[in-house]
Amino acid sequence: MAVTVVVLAPSPLLTVTIEDLAGEPDIHVHPGGQGIWQARMLTSLGVRVVLCAGLGGESGDVLEHLIPGDGLELRAVRLGARNGGYVHDRRDGDRTVVAQAPGGPLDRHEHDALYELTLTAGLEHGTALLSGPHDDRVVPAELYGRLAADLQANGTLVAVDLSGDRLTAALRGRPALVKVSHEELLDDGRADSAEAAGLAAAMRALRADGAGTVVVSRAADPALALVDDDVVAVHMPPLEPAEPKGAGDSMTAGMVAGLARGDSPVDALRVGAACGALNVVRRGLGTGSADAVAALADRIEIVACTADGTPAG
């Protein structure tokens, strides 16, 4: 029986991407945003997803039809404000922003409705991934604090992929998994250096603030993780990148899939790393097959480190 993960995606995006197909524009319309991309990877791994989201305006009407799919159930709060979106042109191989709109913030009643929707689903299914909004104004940080605390206190495994004030709020709920990038740690002032020692210290500080397993992605460099009291480095197989954007989101989704299935944190980390590696060789964000993930997971190397994040031995 497939496990189910609840994903909070406060206000998904409507995305339009223009590709080149034999010299002609090839237009793709999809739902997007961190939570959407994570949900997509989870379903690729055979995990069922309940996506809790706010939808409003014309863009929300379109998203309501685009989001549900095989293994993905949408539970939505109707919003007075519209969802944001963007148009990207990739015909020359790079992403060029043609237009983008942030969408509007949720009001107090909509915050409460989204909290209730996510809490109910999380208690029902036992695993929740709280993803961030695309814009700081969409929902207040305290929503993440309330959800993390109330879900975790009632037996739901909570994972967060957040930064800034939202991460600070979520830590009060003592989430089982915290995923963050090294750039976010630097921007938030949680790390004083991008070197391994500075990031290891930041991970231990996050642990002291309430985090369980902590994973720090480092772009092309090996990710670092604090598992129990051990610092490890995650080495991925060499692959030629096609689309590096979204690798961290796919990594988070893979780890949550593993934890939801009962894997150890190290085994879940291996699955997550494989998902992140697969993401960079594909042009669709949060995509990939379970077979490809399994093949890559066998090639992920987890290396023990000293307390300051340098390789042991």
Give a topology summary:
Blueprint: E1 4-9, E2 13-21, E3 24-32, H1 34-44, E4 48-55, H2 57-66, E5 72-78, E6 83-89, E7 96-103, H3 108-125, E8 127-131, H4 142-153, E9 157-161, H5 164-171, E10 177-181, H6 182-187, H7 196-209, E11 213-218, E12 221-227, E13 230-235, H8 247-260, H9 265-280, H10 290-297, E14 301-304
Parallel strand pairs: 1-4, 1-8, 2-6, 4-5, 8-9, 9-10, 10-11
Antiparallel strand pairs: 2-3, 6-7, 11-12, 12-13, 13-14
Helix pairs in contact: 1-8, 3-4, 4-5, 8-9, 9-10
Provide an overview of this structure.
One of its GO terms (molecular function) is phosphotransferase activity, alcohol group as acceptor. The chain has 313 residues and is α/β, with parallel strands linked by helices. The chain has 2 domains: 1-13 and 34-88 and 100-175, UDP-N-acetylmuramoyl-L-alanine:D-glutamate ligase; 180-313, Ribokinase (UDP-N-acetylmuramoyl-L-alanine:D-glutamate ligase, 3-Layer(aba) Sandwich). Helices cover 37% and strands 29% of the residues. The chain is built from 10 helices and 14 strands. The protein has helices spanning 34-44, 57-66, 108-125, 142-153, 164-171, 182-187, 196-209, 247-260, 265-280, 290-297, and strands at residues 4-9, 13-21, 24-32, 48-55, 72-78, 83-89, 96-103, 127-131, 157-161, 177-181, 213-218, 221-227, 230-235, 301-304. Strands 5-4-1-8-9-10-11-12-13-14 form a 10-stranded mixed sheet, with helices on both faces. The N and C termini lie far apart (42 Å).
Distance between the termini: 42 Å
Tell me the strand percentage band.
25-35%
Compressed to H and E, one letter per element, the order equals: EEEHEHEEEHEHEHEHHEEEHHHE
- Give the C-level CATH assignment of the largest domain: Alpha Beta
The unreliable regions are none
What's the average pLDDT? 93
Quaternary state of the chains: single chain
| Spatial order of strands in the largest sheet | 5-4-1-8-9-10-11-12-13-14
GO molecular function: ATP binding; kinase activity; phosphotransferase activity, alcohol group as acceptor
InterPro entries: PfkB_dom (IPR011611), Ribokinase-like (IPR029056), Tagatose/fructose_Pkinase (IPR017583)
Organism: Pseudonocardia hydrocarbonoxydans
Protein name: 1-phosphofructokinase
